[in-house]
Amino acid sequence: MARINRPVSRRQAWWLLATAIAASLPLLQHVPLWLSIAAGLAFAWRAVLTWRHWRLPPRWLLIPLVIAGAVGVFLQYRTIVGRTPGIALLLVFLALKLLELRAARDAVVTALLCYFLVLGQFLFTQTIPTAMLACLTVLITTAALLAASDDRPAPRQQVYRAGLLLAQAIPFMLLLFLLFPRVQGPLWGIPQDRFTAVSGLSDTMTPGSIAQLSQSDAIAFRVRFKGTVPPQSQLYWRGPVMPSFDGRSWRVAQTLAAYPTIPYDGAGTPVDYEVTLEPHGKHWLFALEMPANLPPDSAMTSDYQPIAREVVRNRLRYTQSAWPDSHAGANETRAALRAALALPAAGNPRIRAISAGWQATHGDNGAAIVAAAEDLFNRQLLTYTLNPPLLGPDMVDEFLFDTKRGFCEHFAAAFVFSLRAAGVPARVVAGYQGGETNPVDGYLEVRQYDAHAWTEAWIAGRGWVRIDPTAISAPSRVSSNLAAAVPAGEGLPFLARSDMAWLKELRYRLDAVTNGWNQWVLGYNPQRQRDLLASLGLREPDWRSMTAILSILSGIVLLVLTVWILRNRQRVDPALTAWRRFTARMARLGIVWQAWEGPLQFAERAARLTPQHARDIVEIAALYAGLRYGPNPRPDDLSRLKSRIASFRP
Amino acid sequence: MRLTELDAILADINHIILGKERPVRLAVACLLARGHLLIEDLPGVGKTTLAHVLARVLGLEFQRIQFTSDMLPADILGVSIFDRGTGAFHFHPGPIFTQVVLADEINRATPKAQSALLEAMEERQVTAEGETRALPEPFFVIATQNPTHQIGTFPLPESQLDRFLIKLELGYPDAAAERELLAGADRQQMVASLTARIAPQRLIEFQKQVRAVHASAALIDYVQALAAHTRTTPRWHAGLSPRACLALLAVARAWALLDGRDHVLPEDVQAVLPGVIAHRLRPTDDNSRADAEAIAAALIEAVPLP
Questions:
Q1: pTM of the prediction?
Q2: CA–CA dist A71, A233 (Å, integer)
Q3: CA–CA dist B249, B264 (Å, integer)
Q4: Domain limits of chain A?
Q5: Is A468 a catalytic residue?
Q6: Interchain proximity B262–A630, CB inside 8 Å
Q7: Going from the N-terminus, what domains does chain B have, and what CATH number goes with each?
Q8: A254 band by pLDDT with thresholds 50, 70 and 90
Q9: Is A622 at the interface with chain B, CB within 8 A?
Q10: Under a CB-based contact definition with an 8 Å cutoff, are residues A100 and A56 in contact?
Q11: What is the interface pTM, i.e. ipTM, of the complex?
């Protein structure tokens, strides 16, 4: 392969530089600054080399640079394996490879490195813009690869040719995507690197922690209901249950190990739905109250909270159903009830006094005490606000009797406190309340600003009963949404607001597209694949039948493309075919016909080089020239040319 | 089909213009293709002699116009003068009314005078004082110009350059040819003693034959491929125009006829390419004033035969 050793032309060098820049730009945000600067310098060096026709740096300079780059990456990350160190190392190689573009071989290696870096982008994000950017970069890289083999066409033509090549690959891409046997698990997730912070509910609740979430309009999860959507006021998405209280913050039970679950009876019409949960870095899975079954690879804690065995680091899809009217824990353990009564020794004297009064009046009639507490909350005319004043050590007292302004966590904390002080077991439940149906694709979108906290009180004979103290003072929070409940003028994420309808409409469409991408591209798992094949009439396919389908369909696509290409191809002049056979024979003698060389000119050159064949060569060339360029070739000229060539055996 | 007459003509010219077989052949091909010739070179390399010889050997009338900066169109085309005897204006034809015109140092004249000549070349007729007069047939202009960077020149614009079918550079003769020239007889006397090889009528027949030379589909594909390459490569400001392609084909036909063939080969196109395209393509990289041969060679090697 002599072609692989051809020197790299200026134009090819420009192509490769452009490709390298396109492939590495999106990755610079993930690598350390020094590496970005070093790569930029290497690119600039390459540009100057090409521009001024300078010589390439010598090997004794490049080898130390490679070593320095690799050592730098190692010192930065203390390893060279893993996502970011690996990408950083590839970036070092790419930048330095550009400085040793000696032969076509180096150009091909550079282009392949660029393809690899494009793939690397997906290790960080898999959004639609990333995919679009990757398509563009692949186009440029392919054009550069084409230019590496033939740099004569203008850049626009190279891009056109690359686009044509990639367009021809699209049917195969779709076939492989849809039909290639899928493996379970995320394609792009590399667990060790996914420690980045993601917003979501935490396992503690202090005043202000949920109000902070209300400033985010990021999607927490999306839900598709199998049947009708339950009324807004029933959409309580149960999250971490927080029984323990230290005077300031509420916490989940200490361990997340699976508790023995206490069963409860189903009540009400079951609601079936499918959740697509965004990664949130915690174990819990949000379920509509009360969960009727568990998603795979999950367990339920003793406070009826489904938790995943693994931290949710990747987008997760699961189907579940709920019994809306169930009450759990009619036979709750003593330990759990004791935990649900625990209060700090001191603090909040005013509410303690009132609660003591309720206990004196109603004894152990939990329902009556709950009613009394609801009545108290009602009479206090509390204001639901995103900007509650700061509270001192006796925060329940201050909230209920002095400031009277709070967000859902204030309400829930104060309510649980007042019940516990009156001897009624109670606890805080965090989660999400409500959600909004996207009219474009019909998914219910639950966003971070739907985060909410409510309470559960244990009432003898019934079990845990949900009471939402926020709804007492701000019923519209539950019946419609956050925007309807907070006073006008408070800062809300714009999606939570009810004005700006067109922006909202736009955002709905964008969310629907993103959701479609998540559901059908990123979330195309073995289950989805089975569903698709089933809808094509292929039930329970094994890998053999899938391979067969894949091969057959690929064959059909190939056939269609071949027919299309053949139809567009011009018919080749038989004289030209014969001439090519002749020149191939000459090439074996070491006399290579240049594609631009006229027949007589070639014959003259060849005859000079091999005088022993001169007569044959000149006559064949004259016959061919007459056939291809002459006015009216004699009918037997073609057969004469063919037989002359056939008998020409140098 | 060797055309001995044409061979004899070429031999006669080469006998006087020494060591310039290719430019001479191109000049004759240009004449056979009914085009006009532009010769750009330094003074004293034989431009004028070439024009003289061509006219003599073909038996054509010859006139020379020395262009100067104060020249007017009437100095070329002719002028009407009042004749007292008849009491009417009488047209005195200018030097252009001849079969071979040598327009010497055309870029010394102002654009006004240049365009008078160029219009006549294109139309093959002269319109003066409302009357149109046809120029003789055959009509052949050989213009010479000094390299444009010389002082006191008005460079011809690209659109005017296109009127010339071929632009030649003669260049210095090689040592052997120059020695023969120095040692040989006086060129002017040799020119004067030349006799016509053919009659003008025969030249017109040859010109007709040129137009009948066969250009096959494969060859036209090749011309198109060459043009397409010049249009898509960023090396030139603009690619070859359709008129340039016609010119290329016409000269290639003449070249094939000079070779005694009734059909054009890619070799013919390649051989005439330097003369046809060099004044029609302007490189984008203005610093690289590559010579015509190099430009043509680069183009040829970039375009495979279809």
A1: 0.53
A2: 59
A3: 9
A4: 2-179, 574-647
A5: yes
A6: yes
A7: 1-211 (3.40.50.300), 213-306 (1.10.8.80)
A8: low
A9: no
A10: yes
A11: 0.85
